[in-house]
Every structure is written in C-alpha cells, then in structure tokens.
Amino acid sequence: QKIDRATAKARHGLFGQIASLFATDEPITDELWDDLEALLIQADVGVETTMYLVNRTKDRCNRYGVKRAREARDMLKAEMVRVLQEQERRQPVNANPSIVLVVGVNGAGKTTLIAKLAYRLKNQFGKRVLLAAGDTFRAAATEQLETWAERVGVPVISRGQGADPGAVVYDAIEAVSGGDFDVLIIDTAGRLHAKTNLMLELQKLRNIIRRKFPDAPHEVLLVIDATTGQNGVLQAKSFLKAVDVTDVAVTKLDGTAKGGIAFAIAQDIERPIRYVGTGEKMTDLALFDAETFVESLFA
Ligand code: GDP
Question: Contact 209/170 with Cβ under 8 angstroms?
C-alpha cells in the first residue's frame, strides 16, 4: 500500500505516540486527553480541529461508558475518519474531453502531480492526455513540465516563459476541440507575492476555457504541500476565492512526520482530498481514502 509508505514517518513519529497513549488498559484520565491534544497540535492537525476531535472523542467515550484507553482508541479513529469524510466527493463529471485545472503555490508539487496524473490516466485507463504549460511566470516551469511530459509520453502545449498564459490555454483548448484527446491537464502559476494578480489570471484562464466548454473546468485541483503545515493551508485558502476548487491533492506526505495536516485541510479547505503524493517518482501517487489513511496512521 502506497499510503502506508507515505505515512511511515507520521506512524513512527507523532501518531505512533498517540497510538501508544491508547494502547494500554489504564483507565482514561484527564491527562490522557491533555496528552492527545498536545500531540495532535504538534502533528499539524491545527488547534480548532484538535479541540473538535478531542471533545468529540471524549463525549463519545462518556456516552458509551468507555473507561479504558484501549477502547477509546476506536472512538478516536472513528472521529478522525468522520472529519476526513465530511467533505462529500462530487460525482466525477463524465466529460470528454475532461478539463482539469491544477492550482497551488509555487513548490507545492503541481508539476510533479500533473506528471503523476498523466501517467495514471494514460497507463491505467488508456486515456489520451494533453498537458498545457500555463505557468509562464516561473523560470523553467515550462521546461520542467516538458521534461515530465516526455518521460510520461504525452504531448504538451507551451509558449515558453513570459508568454501570455491565456494564449497557452487558448491553444490547448483548440487542440482538444478536435476530439484527439480525452483529458487536458492545465498547469498554472503559483506566485503569491508578485505584482501581477494571480487570482485574476486564474479567473481569466477559466473564462477562456468556458468560451468553448461552458461546463469546464470539470475538475479544479488545489495542490497543498503537507510539509508546509498550517501556513500552507492558510496560503492555499486564498485560491478558494478565485476558482471553484473541487478537490485537493496533498503532496509530500512521505516527507513529514506530522501528517495531521490532512485533518486541518479537510476542515479548513472544505474540499475532499482526492490524491496523495507519496514520493518524487511518477508512480508515487495514491488515491485518498479516509479509513485507509487513519488505519495507516495507527498501524
Ligand atoms: P511546483 O512548483 O508546484 O510545480 O512544484 P514541483 O512539482 O516542481 O515540486 C517541487 C519539489 O517537490 C520537487 O523537488 C519535487 O520532486 C518534490 N515533490 C513533489 N511531490 C512530491 C511528493 O509527493 N513527495 C516528495 N517527497 N517530493 C515531492
């Protein structure tokens, strides 16, 4: 299981400590809840979500007369799954071509994720995939996407650094209009602090797409780097105002011993987590599943 590898650090780190808190037949004490609270906060779960989880678990234990730590563990796991599942997955839109817009701050792992998605769609589902190099702002972003595209074996529409991203997307939309492709995945810029307004740019791209495909983009993936913690979630939130984010991809989960960020994302971003990045290779992608994820944290 890829997700097990991705959560190894978290499992051996803070979640391992949480698991051992609940591995005894000792009676439940206030100290247990305090320790749980401290560990969840350290694990990047975020204060609000931590309080929510602790209080709900405590209430449940009281309600069901649970007295021993070991039995409380299942209550905690159930609450964790609930937090992650609160965001209902929409039914995937069955459009052809299907148009996917990928957004997120620089360095979050957008380009790598696009390569992983393209690889999966092409090799597992036999889809004809086209990529669009819509990040014309960051130096080498286009080249990086082209390198990945070559490795995966899919074509990419690009105009190079400094070009109008709208023109790139326009070209890509024209290219998929002919029926030669099943999926178009569009990379976008991730600069948050530059003068030119990124959010306006994203809205323009969306409008260009909609001129030809009024119900597109069919999926807007917000990419969040698990290693950037609460700050990463805060930055990611700014994208919610600009585009209709449909799903979240959490990258670099393998790179953090905290891992609790998934809970903070579910509560703060209010979108379902769909994909998890489990490494740097194009095969290092897992579909997110709440129960499997929580199990892997406690395994
Ligand atoms: P972008 O600026 O958002 O396009 O980010 P990139 O795709 O260039 O990724 C930034 C860095 O993160 C690169 O060094 C990637 O190899 C690395 N990276 C991306 N996804 C993952 C992941 O799931 N796990 C790990 N360990 N590294 C990743």
Answer: no
On the question of a cis peptide bond just before residue 97, with omega within 30 degrees of 0, the verdict is yes
- 99-121: pLDDT as tens digits: 999 999 999 999 999 999 999 99
Report the predicted TM-score, pTM, of the whole model to 2 decimal places. 0.95
CA distance 130 to 275: 20
Q: How confident is the model at residue 192 (pLDDT cuts 50, 70, 90)?
A: confident
pLDDT at 194: 65
24-54 as b/e, with b when 16 or more CB fall inside 10 Å? eeeebeeebbeebbebbbbbbbbeebbebbb
CA dihedral angle for residue 257, residue 247, residue 231, residue 10, rounded to 10 degrees: -10
Helical H runs in 86-197? 110-125, 141-152, 165-177
The residue whose CB lies within 8 Å of the most ligand 1 atoms, and thus the one to mutate among 102, 103, 112, is: 112
Residues in the chain: 299
Q: Looking at residues 174-198, what average pLDDT do you find?
A: 90
ipTM of the complex: 0.99
Q: How far is the CA of 114 from the centre of ligand 1 (A)?
A: 10
